[in-house]
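Dear colleague,

Following up on Tuesday's group meeting, I ran the structure prediction for the two-component complex that the binding team flagged. I've pasted the input sequences exactly as they went in, so you can double-check that nothing got truncated or mislabelled along the way. The structure tokens for the whole assembly follow below. Feel free to forward this to whoever is handling the docking comparison.

Inputs:
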Amino acid sequence: MVGPDGSIRAPYADVAKWLEAAPPDQLERLRIESELLYRRGGITFAVYGDAAGEERIIPFDIVPRMISTAEWARLELGLKQRVRALNMYLADIYGKQRVLKEKIVPEDLVWQNPAFRPEMAGVSVPHDIYVHIAGIDIVRIDADDYYVLEDNARTPSGVSYMLGGREISIRLMGDLYGAHRVAPVEDYPNELVSTLRSIAPKAAGDDPVVVLLTPGQFNSAYYEHSFLADKMGVELVEGRDLLVRDNFVYMRTTERPKRVDVIYRRIDDDFLDPLVFRPDSLLGVPGLFNAYAAKNVALANAVGTGAADDKAIYTYMPEIVKFFLGEEPILKNVPTWRCRNPNELSHVLAHLPELVVKEVHGSGGYGMLVGPAARAAEIERFRGLLKAHPENYIAQPTLALSACPSFVGSGVAPRHVDLRPFCLTGAKGVKIVPGGLTRVALKEGSLVVNSSQGGGTKDTWVVDV
Amino acid sequence: MLSRTADNLFWLSRYVERADYFARVLEATSRLAALPAAYSAPGNEWVGALATAGCYDAFMKEYDKPTAESVIQFLAFSDKNPFSIRQCLETARFNARAVRTALTVEMWETINGAWLELQRMDKSTLAPARLTRFTEWVKDVSLRFDGSGYRTMLRNDAYWFSRLGIFIERADNTARILDVKYHILLPETSAVGGGLDYSQWAAILRSVNALTAYHWVYRESLRPWLIADLLILNRELPRSLASCYREIVDGLDNLAGAYGRQGRGQRLARALHNSLDSGTIEKVFQTGLHEFVTHFISDNQRIGAAISEQYLI
């Protein structure tokens, strides 16, 4: 909220006044009310490995995160550039592989990447789009620069919290909300369903049937799946509701099997089709991949997009943007040491207490080391891991992430935030609703914003200043 | 709509209806058990409650002896009994969560709100001594769920499947009461007479929420054959077998209309409805009340299975 010179940044002017004027118990009352709204609506998520917390709500911080329209415009350009490059990169590695032949990206990062799907080589996808829904995690470090922390090109989640947060702002924060002109986000489900319809096979005609495929109600994001299906007006299906006959996909209905043209799948590649991927998967649909390869059904995201979003490929994104688009990247990468290179590894080992170390294939904030916050034993454990399998890790400096005023029980205090805008790519180009999901590390000093690790969310207001 | 969605809606309604029925059975039984010994029937009211709920065998696996305490525990609160009221509500909410998009917000909030409240209840609330408060609450939940469905759902297949669930379950419940209590409804038992029979008969009517209705319909004191008439053939009583079947036939006709085809479910339901509609209580007693009810229960099950085969799998 505060600029380098100590003054309140322009988009926060009214928020600061509002916080000052708010009676001390008002914030607590609003927090309780917002929690009730979430709880009653069943807006929950599950934490894996935590039996007691089968259904929890993500803490919602009622103080909004502000972004000016001008800032957003530049961010939007950068995001569009980034997702275009991600899609071109995927089309290339599953097609002509120029990026490998010209040695922009080392071959083994593709071939040895468990998320690379050789089955996809030579399979053409509608409009050459692989990542229809991308969640690009972004942090701001100083007044001018946004950095990409992570590209999520598989099945990024969290958009229901962006939409739910906005509803709560409007209901509970009417006075502050009304004092601003806030760019709307509520058309996201509408944009999503248009994007999905735009990639339907030609044979589907003018009114393609779209479904959302969920692993079921034990999945941590089940609430989001049912919420999005409802808002889009499409069926929420599980694997057992679908069947494949003669390379076409159908759903079992109370009348007769009904053709399905587009599947927004929220299950991982591994579980999609037991005949092609993991044979023990009960979540998927036998024969789905063949129907997909025969272009009788479209999948969003495409199979094999994980090959573009792991942390090793991330380090090459600036080169990938330049190579495919011939442009300078608008969004920067966080400086990253690739531990696979011996001299970079020795630098990392020498500076472990200052660095953040991440698993190349990890996600969700599991299995990472935050040097400045870690105990000595934890650092030594990671030293061992790094020496044993350096290729599995990257390291980054701990960033001076921007902080936003947040309500933390004892009062309002700055907490670190990131931003996940949701980028939709369809036949007609890239669409991004203004803002996205702001995640906040509610523990003092913490830099980890993942909901599975005690993070919360905020509503994000893109406002005219 | 998806078969799985229809199946979930059907069973969601059944579980809510069943929870409501068990609450009424427990209330009626507590009332009987509170009478002086001179009024009580031979044997044990709580055994009767278990039989009416169809849970006697399951109970005897868990407990040695049916006492007030143990039966209430088992039918209302136990997590070992898959059909205890508490488990019915758990299962209903599980089904509701799987088909959230097919429910209206009001229905979802009722069932989810009830479930949340259930999570907050502790040993002191879920105790036999507090039974009445609990059963009142359960009846209130089912009333709100039923009412919000009736008031807010679109009249399409989702609605008809959820209504079918209610009425198949309700018909089964009414028939089960008759099945267990038929011996005190036979005309000859009226010779016993006295307060004992009155209490027993009133308990039957209370279990299906029909004691006041009886007086409005027949305007005389309780007679066993009239009770049987009310519960089996009366077209006005919403829990009578005849009423349930009129609703079931309507629901199935609506589905057949929407989907443009009839099936086995429609044929079987119509036949059963016709026999109830043209039947008389004299004929029922000639066949034998017990035989009649046993037949009805298996017919009702067969129709439930036909609906399932036709639409839900």
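The interface with chain A takes residues 1-6, 94, 97-98, 100-101, 108-109, 112-113, 116, 157, 161, 255, 259, 311-312 of chain B (CB under 8 Å).

Cheers,
M.
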